[in-house]
Amino acid sequence: MLKLLAGNVAVVTGASSGIGRAIALTFAQEGARVVLADIVNEPLEGGETTLDLILRSGGEAFFQRVDVGQWEQVDNLIGAAVARYGRLDIMVNNAAISSATGLLETTEAQWEDVMRVNLTGIFHGCKRAIQQMIHQEPRDEVRGRIINLGSQQGIVTCPGETPYGVSKAGAIYITRQIAADYAKHLIVCNSISPGKIVTGRPGVGQDPALVENARHRTPWPRLGRPQDIANAAVFLGSNRATYITGANLVVDGGWLAG
Fold first, then answer.
1. What does residue 205 show for φ and ψ, rounded to 5 degrees?
2. Which is it for strands 248-251 and 187-194: parallel, antiparallel or unpaired?
3. Could you tell me which of 205, 166, 188 has the C-alpha nearest to residue 19?
4. Cα distance between residue 145 and residue 133, in whole Å
């Protein structure tokens, strides 16, 4: 059975843990050669690294330490991917952080940190990917695909997450702008907005009160898993989604429908 991403070259930021880890692993299972980018190689959940899991299963990948808020490092990342594999087919801008603060509790440093990683990081990833993609020969009518990670918190409000929510709203907007501006160049750009995803990462996301609120708000009888987002990313990264561009695919178990 032909794999959906066979022969594709994909870069995934924030690939060591959580949603990025699931995307990278699933891309590899679907035949992509995956470039793993993160500030650390070790998963926050513990266990084997994403790179080790891919290589052990017979996939092809390499890891590069990258701070997406630094243009030079993103530039080097895409350069390394193209130097090894010859092109870039899919760019997944997933790396993100949160300050877990509301407006009055947010310091200027916290605001700048979240925006630098979550929004400037997406700007860097999109710009550098398009610089490469725009000169490539098309495959199945497409020169390249960009997938940005938004969030339902970029669509509806969430108390205590002001910088994060603003950054994710920006991720959804830049997706639409890029889709409109670069469709004529055969570049596809979409975003995925997860609802509550249980990743196993320590921190505020494991707060029992927040988890219970998410269970109450989500119509589907379970919370999301990283694999749910990875499945959506495979679809958007494949030639089954060629005429879908500028879309924000919400994967939230029906939260926004309630």
1. -65, -15
2. parallel
3. 205
4. 8
Enumerate the active-site residues. 164
For domain 9-257, give the CATH superfamily: NAD(P)-binding Rossmann-like Domain (3.40.50.720)
Closest CA to 74 of 25, 123, 113: 123
Q: What values do phi and psi take at 65, rounded to 5?
A: -75, 125
Distance CA 194, CA 204 (A): 17
Structure tokens at 165: 């929510």
**Token pair 């958007």 is at which residue?**
236
- How do the domains of the chain map onto residue ranges? 9-257
Q: What is the pLDDT of residues 186-200, one digit of tens each?
A: 999 999 999 999 987
Model confidence pLDDT, tens digit, residues 215-254: 888 999 999 999 999 999 999 999 999 999 999 999 999 9
